[in-house]
Amino acid sequence: MPAFDSGNTTTNGVYQADELCRWFSFVEIQSATNNFDDTLVIGKGGFGKVYKGFIDGGATTVAIKRSNAESKQGAAEFWTEIKTLSKLRHTHLVTLIGYSDDCEEMILVYERGSEDERLLVLVLHRLLVLVLHRLLV
């Protein structure tokens, strides 16, 4: 993981960054997921599908969460998740690498851990997002 800016803080092992994460164009997301190829789907939920993707010329494997039109997650939750998770880094949280709001999409890009830790981390992550959303809204 790259070094954090000097303006960031650490409290109880949780890093808090001052800036939002990386922005991706829709074309970059399409390329990373081979145009949202169904063979790369690694999860589904009320929000839409999660794809295994490859960024930075294939050097980094990521999980890409693409909201669908029927999703109960709206723009407020999308931006809360970006703003909150862009600031936090912890070994027990999935790291938000970036997002795309290009072409009226709501797409989040996360680091991809091992298969063994994926379920636990996603459950903990979703719980944190729900709690933070209630606290911040």
From TrEMBL:
Provide the Gene Ontology terms for cellular component: plasma membrane; plasmodesma
Keyword set, alphabetical order: ATP-binding, Kinase, Nucleotide-binding, Serine/threonine-protein kinase, Transferase
In terms of InterPro entries, this protein maps to:
ANXUR1/2-like (IPR045272), Kinase-like_dom_sf (IPR011009), Prot_kinase_dom (IPR000719), Protein_kinase_ATP_BS (IPR017441)
Tell me if Kinase is a UniProt keyword of this record: yes
Q: Which residues bind ATP?
A: 65
Q: Where do the Protein kinase domain residues begin and end?
A: 36-137
Transmembrane stretches in the record are: none
Kinase keyword on record = yes
In alphabetical order, the GO MF annotations are: ATP binding; protein serine/threonine kinase activity; transmembrane receptor protein tyrosine kinase activity
Pfam families in the record: Pkinase (PF00069)
Know the name of this protein?
A: Protein kinase domain-containing protein
This protein's species is Camellia sinensis var. sinensis
